[in-house]
Amino acid sequence: MLILECPCCGVKAEETELSPGGEAHLKRFGPGSTDEDFETYMFARQNPKGVHFERWRHAYGCGKWFLAARCTATLEVFGTYPAQTTEPPAELIAKIKARRPDWKGWK
Amino acid sequence: MRRYSVFAIAREALRFHSGWEKAWRSPEPKKQYDVIIVGAGGHGLATAYYLGKNFGITNVAVIEKGWLGGGNTGRNTTIIRSNYLQDPSSAIFEKARALYETLSQDLNYNIMFSPRGLLMLAQTHHEVRGYKRTVHANQLQGVATEWVTPEQVKKLVPMINLHGPRYPVLGGQYQARGGTARHDAVAWGYARACSDMGMDIIQNCEVTAVRSANGVVTGVETTRGEIGCKKLGIVVAGHSGVLAEMAGFRLPIESIALQALVSEPIKPCIDIVVMANTVHGYISQSDKGELVIGGGTDGFNNYTQRGSFHHIEETLRALVETFPVISRLKMLRQWGGIVDMTGDRSPLISKTPLGNCFINCGWGTGGFKAIPGSGWAMAELVAKGEPGPLAAEFDMWRFKEGRFIDESVAAGVAH
């Protein structure tokens, strides 16, 4: 059972309390963008077997969106952080690198 | 290959079963093949089989990371149906269903195809309208499905509770020639036929890199050495994204765990397949008497082949509502498979940005039923280098061009 700590309200919530929202840090392209940009935004996903940055909503709690770093192969959670950012915090990346030395980096 | 027959059984019975030969060879990999198929599941083996049977290409290796048929081929709920709404989907799934009808004879291997009938329950007015629309579409496509009333549903499945606590049964969509087959036997039968044609099936051989020169594939590196090839087919379901990364392109695919479970064996109580998509559970009874139950997918990406516990609870709650008589039944086993979900819930049978490299994936929660049709279409794509009529619509560029084959809302399948 997956347990994530909501960085907004501090509650340790298990997955039935949360709604998954897919890959995090997607860049949405504005008017005038190419078909490739929009396809990438809509459909292309990293889908790694390993470290994955993703969006979650504390649906049956505070209702806020937040982001999490999780291993898709083991379900190990490296950490959660607020959604108001365009890239993962440096200390979280350092923590993941310590846990997964052969990890290639977040993007 | 010595053929299986009633005479073979009699002959072996007389000599204490000492003469059965291995169903397929396990050779060392050669240095070079015309075609390498990565993934010895149903789809990969079917691709190899139809490459040999339809196109005479037999210098083929099927490479498998684990053991043959040990991925989703051995993890599904064995349901076969073709009652899809969109024309390209119903064409390829109906081709597959039709091939299943005679597959035991074609392969000389009993795959236990059982066209016992498949019923999708409509439990909301939205579903009633959706299934009636699909039935009409199927009639135009030449797929035999029909709308049945609640009274007919009760006749087909006497143990059903038509007046469920949450959702009454308002009718159903019935495909009389849908059913089940023995999933392992499908992989084994294709493997035996491929091996008989001289193809090499190489198990315990994981691909670690894809080799290319000037934008054209030249071979693969594996845990058992480097193997060259002129053409490469990637048919690895849940791990498609991993292989695609090796080949240098990205796929519109996310990998998610889907669960299934079986109950303890009981006396025959249900002789068709029933899918209840509103309450989210589907059920059939195996020849051993176990109820085979399909559950839901996890909401988040993962490769754990396990699945979240609460989905079991939701699935069983749905089934107990629909079939109260099974409420005391114990569950024997539960497992998960990694399904590869595309944006429109339809598969990819496609050329790729890498020359002579082809991909067949994205079958999501419904790949088993498609195995023969998928192999047929993929073999045509690999052999000719261009898709035939079955595969034409399923290319990977449809997402850029907005030509979705939108089954996520249309088919009513349990996602």
From TrEMBL, chain A:
Tell me the Gene Ontology biological-process terms attached to this UniProt entry.
Answer: tetrahydrofolate metabolic process
* Top-rank taxon, per record: Bacteria
Q: Which InterPro entries does the entry link to? A: SoxD, SoxD_sf
Show the Pfam families listed in the entry.
SoxD
List, in alphabetical order, the Gene Ontology terms for molecular function in this entry. Answer: sarcosine oxidase activity
Q: Which residues cross the membrane?
A: none
- Protein name, entry field: Sarcosine oxidase, delta subunit family
Organism for this UniProt entry: Pseudogemmobacter humi
TrEMBL record, chain B:
Superkingdom of this protein's organism = Bacteria
Q: Which cofactor does it need?
A: FMN; FAD
What main location does UniProt list? cytoplasm
GO molecular function terms here?
nucleotide binding; sarcosine oxidase activity
| The Rhodanese domain, residue ranges | 35-79
Instruction: Tell where it localizes.
Output: Cytoplasm
Give a Gene Ontology cellular component term annotated to this protein: cytoplasm
Please state the Enzyme Commission number of this protein. Answer: 1.5.3.24
What SUPFAM superfamilies does the record tag this protein with?
A: FAD-linked reductases, C-terminal domain, FAD/NAD(P)-binding domain
Matching entries from InterPro entries are given as: FAD-dep_OxRdtase, FAD/NAD-bd_sf, Rhodanese-like_dom, SoxB
Arranged from A to Z, the UniProt key words for this protein are: Cytoplasm, FAD, Flavoprotein, FMN, Nucleotide-binding, Oxidoreductase
Asked if the keyword Membrane belongs to this entry, the reply reads no
- What GO biological process terms are annotated to this protein in UniProt? tetrahydrofolate metabolic process
Enzyme class per UniProt? oxidoreductase
Describe the reaction catalysed, as an equation. sarcosine + (6S)-5,6,7,8-tetrahydrofolate + O2 = (6R)-5,10-methylene-5,6,7,8-tetrahydrofolate + glycine + H2O2; sarcosine + O2 + H2O = formaldehyde + glycine + H2O2
Family of the protein in this entry = Belongs to the SoxB family.
Stated name of the protein: Sarcosine oxidase subunit beta
| Protein source organism | Pseudogemmobacter humi
